[in-house]
Amino acid sequence: MKILIACEESQVVCKAFREKGHEAYSCDILDCSGGHPEWHIKDDVLKYLNDGWDLMIGFPPCTYLSHAGNSALKNNPDRKFKQKEAFDFFMKLYNSPINKICLENPRGWITQLFRREDQVIEPFEFGESERKRTCLWLKNLPPLMKGPVNPEGMRPKKIIIRKTGQRKGGNYGYYYVQGKKAKDKAKTFPGIAQAMATQWG
Ligand SMILES: C[S@@+](CC[C@H](N)C(=O)[O-])C[C@H]1O[C@@H](n2cnc3c(N)ncnc32)[C@H](O)[C@@H]1O
């Protein structure tokens, strides 16, 4: 299959599909960090939506779409404008002429402005040790089957790792890593990429 991985610089998903023999390309306005520039389109993904793809998996930016920034939205026309831009970008990807589509974002404004997600997944449901609630909007794709579940990730825990490396632990709450850079936090978990490539490839 000819596959477009939209808004991906890490190439985690692109490489998982390549390993299964597909012609997959990542596309991002940033250089790729996955080590395969020959499979990377460094440009605005909107220019490539009509290029005859069989499947697109997209990770559009969520900075202005997640509920985390809600308080900053109030009485802030600049932020509201950026939210509209981000929502329009998401919808251009969703409405592109590609038969099979999966778009990923946290639960937030998409749910209110468009519709509820088709599936909610957690990295620990795909063998990873972290929690990060993630929503998928699907077109002509079945929901991802979960497994192998990592029991470590299921156990609620509150761990704060400070930038200095100091670790503060408790017995409840969520896994939270303070030291991670935003770019690293946005990278797709390999367990989820493997499930996508195996089940949708
Ligand atoms: C939430 S991050 C997703 C990162 C991804 N999960 C990965 O593993 O690389 C959103 C990405 O969208 C990219 N982006 C923003 N606008 C874009 C555009 N018009 N065309 C292509 N990529 C874009 C950003 O540079 C950023 O890398």
Give Rg in angstroms.
Answer: 17 Å
Q: How do the strands of the widest beta sheet line up side by side?
A: 3-2-1-4-5-7-6
**What's the number of helices?**
7
Low-pLDDT stretches: 169-178
End-to-end separation in angstroms reads 7 Å
Q: Helical amount among residues, as a percent range?
A: 25-40%
Number of strands: 10
Hetero groups: S-adenosylmethionine
Mean pLDDT metric: 88
Element pattern in H and E: EHEEEHHEHEEHEEEHH
- Biggest sheet details: 7 strands, mixed
Helices and strands: which structural class?
alpha/beta
Please tell me what the overall shape is: globular
* Proportion in β-strands: 15-25%
Describe this entry's structure for a reader:
By secondary structure, the protein is of the alpha/beta class. 27% of the residues lie in helices and 21% in strands. It has 7 helices and 10 strands. The chain has helices at residues 12-19, 70-73, 77-94, 109-113, 151-154, 182-186, 190-200; strands spanning 2-6, 23-28, 40-42, 55-58, 100-105, 119-121, 134-139, 159-161, 167-169, 175-177. The strands form 2 sheets. A 7-stranded mixed β-sheet has the order 3-2-1-4-5-7-6, with helices on both faces. It has a 3-stranded mixed β-sheet with strand order 9-8-10, with no helix packed on it. Strand 8 and strand 9 (167-169) form a beta hairpin. Helix 1 crosses helix 7 (190-200). The longest helix is centred in the middle third of the chain and has 18 residues, at 77-94. It is globular and about 50 Å long. The chain starts with a strand and ends with a helix. The structure holds S-adenosylmethionine (SAM).
